Target: Signal recognition particle 54 kDa protein
Amino acid sequence: MVLGALGSRISDALRNMSNAMLVDDKVLNDMLKEIGNALIAADVSVPLVLNLRKAITQQVNMEEMAQGINKRKLIQTAVFQELINLVDPGHKPYVPVKGQTNVIMLVGLQGNGKTTTAGKLGYYYQRKGWKVGLVCADTFRAGAFDQLKQNATKARIPYYGSYTETSPVVVAADGVDKFREEGFEIIIVDTSGRHKQEEALFEEMAEVAEAVEPDTTIFVMDAAIGQAAQDQAEAFRERVDVGSVIITKMDGSAKGGGALSAVAATHSPIVFIGMGEHIDQLEPFDASSFVSRLLG
Ligand code: GDP
Model:
């Protein structure tokens, strides 16, 4: 499983605490320190780790006043709950509505997996019976349209793009108009990325958003980015109305904690995680099952 080392270190820390003869403050603190170190090694940011430790201690101290409570169980529950809180900002992402057009715009830096994710997301909804169309508004990266077309063709998803039109705004608007008129329920717009955060990218994103009026914008972020994730997520959020996040390449990264803490810091819910290069390797994200799986 992804972040396997993190999961087993946390599980070991919990087990050590459970095996202790007496769970006193020292045992609790040692366990929290080890969990904190494991999270930091997975690139979760230090302030978040400190908050998490504080929240666990507070929960435990408060509950302790109640009589007859099993302290080990109490601590385990608090750790579990706070890990869930770390990846769940508490507000719900946009949920597409059946029978109407839902425009979903994907944004992110080049190479983070936007185009692959556009195909996966289309495939996910199509399999659930939605009428899906893909629009390639990435006119910046040579080959982006071919890549989207290839994935769409394989999955038999209708697509729209242009080899001659160089304005992403025009392609996006035309594609969305076409699918909207034809009664498509989910229209996924893949936008251009850049190698780094730069003004041209943000301006283009804003123009495309203005032209297609997305119902929701999803920020696509590579799990391998580590500590830089927070800065990147904040920069995107400042410039475009990010409704939720998809973290890609969770299959390959031990550093996914960076992306997870970016999500916590920007209060953006994670909607899916990418677990491989294939079109069916996209999983809906659920905070509590993610943490359960993480801890084995
Ligand atoms: P874009 O520039 O943001 O559109 O990025 P692409 O969609 O072209 O993806 C860049 C690379 O990442 C490609 O080689 C993809 O196959 C790969 N990729 C995307 N998502 C995942 C994922 O969830 N897991 C893995 N292992 N690779 C992925």
Summary: Strands lie at 102-107, 132-137, 159-160, 186-191, 216-222, 242-248, 270-274, 282-284. The mean pLDDT is 91. Residues 46-64 form the longest helix (19 residues).
